[in-house]
Amino acid sequence: MDILAKDLDDLKYAKSLLENLGLAAKITNFLGTPLEKGFDLLPANWADVVSSSTRKALLVAVDSAILTLKSKREGDHSANTLHKIMVAGSGAVGGFCGLPALPLELPVSTTIMMRSIADIARSEDHLISDPLVKVACIEVFSLGGPGANDDAVETGYFTVRSGLAKSVSEAARYLAKNGLIEKNSPVLIKLISQIASRFGIQVSEKMAAQAIPVLGAAGGAIINTLFMDHFQSMARGHFTVLRLEKKYGADTIKQVYMML
C-alpha cells in the first residue's frame, strides 16, 4: 500500500523521536558531566526507593489522570508547555528535598506527565475513551529506555511494544469489560510491573542528576522539565505510529518504519 507523502514524513519524524539518544544523554548535556557522579552520591538503598516509588507513581497516575480525562478537547494542539511548567514546580521541590522527597514528588510529576501523554494522544486523533488508547498512554512510560536485563538490540520501539503486547491486550480487554481497572487487578499489576522496570531507569537517571549538590531546587525544576520533554516526545512518536497503523495497517507501518 502506498503511503501519502505527509504520512511518510510523520512516520519519519515519529521514528526520530522514538529512537533518539534518550533521557540520559539530555541530562548529561545539561550537566556537562557524566551521570555516574550523581549515582555515586545516592544512598545505598536508592534502588529500592526508586523501585517502590515507580510502581506507586504509575498506579496513582492511572487512577488520577487517564480515567478522568475527557475524550475530546478543543483545538488540534496539546498543552505541552503548560504541563512542563506544572512538572517543573514539583521538580523544584524534589530538587530541594532530595531522595527522601521521591515517594511524594514522583506520583505528582508522573500524574502530570500522564495527563500530558493523554493530551498528546487526543491531538493525534485518538479517543481517550478507547480502552486501547488508555492502556497505550501507560505504555509510553516503557519507551526510550532499556529494562533491567536488556541489551542494546532489545530496546527498539517495536521490540518494546512486542514484549508488552500480551499484557497491553489483556489490560485493554479488562478495561473494556469492566469500565475501569482496579488497582489490585492482576492484569494491571502485571502491566505496571513490566513498565515500571523500564520507567525506573529514567527515574534513576533523574535522581542521579538531582543528587549533584550544585543543582538544588532550580536544577530539580530543569531536570523535571527534561523528564517531561522526554516522555512528551515518546508520546508524540507513539501515537503518531498508532494513528498511521489505524490508517494503513500495523504490518505495513512497521515494515516502512524499519526501512526508514
Give a short summary of the structure:
The chain is mainly α and 260 residues long.
Any overview of this molecule?
The chain has 260 residues and is mainly alpha-helical. The chain has one domain. The chain contains eleven helices and no strands. It has helices spanning 5-18, 23-31, 36-41, 46-64, 80-97, 102-123, 131-139, 157-178, 186-210, 216-248, 250-259. α5 (80-97) packs antiparallel against α6, α6 (102-123) packs parallel to α10 and α8 (157-178) crosses α9 (186-210). The longest helix has 33 residues, at 216-248. The model has no long low-confidence stretch (mean pLDDT 81).
Q: Characterize the biggest β-sheet.
A: none
Distance between the termini: 16 Å
Would you identify the regions where 5 or more consecutive residues have pLDDT less than 50?
none
Overall geometric form = globular
Number of helices: 11
From the helix content, strand content and strand pairing, which structural class follows?
A: mainly alpha
Radius of gyration: 18 Å
Number of domains: 1
- Strand percentage lies at under 5%
State the order of secondary-structure elements, H for helix, E for strand: HHHHHHHHHHH
| Mean pLDDT score | 81
Helix content: over 70%
* Beta strands, count: 0
Provide tags for this entry.
single chain, 260 residues, mainly alpha, 11 helices, 72% helix, globular
Write the layout of secondary structure elements.
Blueprint: H1 5-18, H2 23-31, H3 36-41, H4 46-64, H5 80-97, H6 102-123, H7 131-139, H8 157-178, H9 186-210, H10 216-248, H11 250-259
